[in-house]
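Worked example

This section walks through a single chain of length 326. The input is the sequence exactly as stored; nothing has been trimmed or padded.
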Amino acid sequence: MIRSRIISTGSYLPPRVLTNSDLEKMVDTSDEWIISRSGIRERRIVEKDVATSDLGAEAARRALEMAGLKAGDLDLIITGTNSPDMFFPCTGCFIQAKIGAKKAAAFDVSAGCTSFIHALSLADKFIKEDPSRKVMVLGAEIMSKVTDWTDRATCVLFGDGAGAIILVGEEGERGVLSTHLHSDGSLWELLYIPGGGSANPSSPETVKQRMHYIKMAGNQLFKVAVRALAEVSQEAMEHNGLKSADIEVMIPHQANTRIIEAAAKLINFPMEKVYLNIDKYGNTSSATIPIALDEIHREGVLKAGSLILLCSFGTGVTWGGAVIRW
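Given that input, the structure is written out below as tokens.
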């Protein structure tokens, strides 16, 4: 059987660190409150002249270096992002140009924080269609530029960063075993940015009303997220005839430690096998999972044959999961 196997990973976090103590000087909040509600201690924030494609391009270069490939070897670049450089062209095209991947087709996926898993699912299908393809999948975000820094409920949560993986077709049991995607558009008002699109085109009025920043119904989203993570994790394991004891590590979307703990409890998944880095980076949206994958890969935790469970939820509302045999 041909499977799409991850041969390399890469990530990039901007150097500027914004701590909870820094936020205490900006809005009415406290380090203790932020940690207790989210598990976040600090996050990375870009400088003003940096675009999402800049972060993605650097993560891409690091993944290429690990794989021993040149950018020209890539056939396809799929970028998950909710904070694109521009309305159009797609951010993937900017990344393609910046790394010099001249023969690669490029496009973006916008499915909230689940965008990376959606992009992974698409890459898997493209490789199974033609196993000779080399596909790069990215999650890249600059959430700081769509965050309302006067809203203490949301500004403490988000950070900037990018992660990338490269997949190739290979015979055998290693690779992506399955992906599972879901959505419920009736819940869109739980997390959204109202301004800038065709529903509310940019105008002095939309700017005045701060409609170009994240709006979130945190309490309602919390409940939906817990259920979604638990259900899709269980679905992914059952689809592959697996139990939590078979999984080496779960890498969930890093949105909130309490959400992750509650979801793990629902399916009796031990927290000691859940990878967390939210304390260092906050919620980098579609970039959280590929950043975590790169970290855990470079730390040497993953061995050939290790089973990995990915799960995420996001605006839409969307949620998804995947099982990978490393």
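What to look for: The longest strand covers residues 160-171.
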